[in-house]
Amino acid sequence: MSSGVAAAPECLEKFAQLKMSKSLKYILFKLNDRRTEIVIDKTSGNPDYEEFLENLPSDGCKWAVYDFSYTSDDGSPRNKLCFFSWSPDNAPIRAKMVHASSKDALRRSLDGIGAEIQGTDPTEVAYETVLEKVKRFSR
Fold it and tell me: What is the dihedral of CA 16, 17, 23, 27, to 10 degrees?
């Protein structure tokens, strides 16, 4: 089901910047106030994963792309672009419904995502949980 919401052009421009130049570590996306378009909420070049998690609200929905760095089982450094769909349990029901129905419009426009992470509580987006999913996708 689609909500008819589309991603703003700057979303794709910032995603290309994150993917190609590596000057950004993550991008947070949200619906605009009228719920008609997906817009950028925040960008950051800070590699601190905990800072990224602090930007996921306990009572609101967001999407994000995070350039996840990790060490593979053979010891080599790796990166995987992760798409996060954050919809916490205590977000308003209407917001969660619009968020869920709008996700595909954003996700389909972002080419090169290596893993998708669905989060409703902090344990589902914790570093170790995401690391496990990313390693599973890289096999």
Answer: -70
Is 72 in contact with 78 (CB distance < 8 Å)?
yes
Model confidence pTM above 0.85? yes
For 44-65, the pLDDT digits (tens) are 999 999 999 999 999 999 999 9
Residues near 124 by Cβ (< 8 Å), separated by ≥ 6?
A: 117, 118
Tell which residue, 57, 53, 65, has the closest CA to residue 106: 65
Catalogue the E-assigned strands of the chain: 6-7, 26-31, 37-44, 62-71, 77-86, 115-119
* Pairing of the two strands 37-44 and 26-31: antiparallel
Q: What are phi and psi of 50, to 5 degrees?
A: -65, -35
Which two three-digit tokens encode residue 88?
Answer: 């916490």
Token code pair at residue 66: 């995070």
The total of other beta-carbon atoms located within 10 Å of residue 114's CB is: 16
Judge contact between 115 and 131, C-beta under 8 A: no
Contacts of 130 (CB under 8 A, 6+ apart): 68, 82, 115, 117
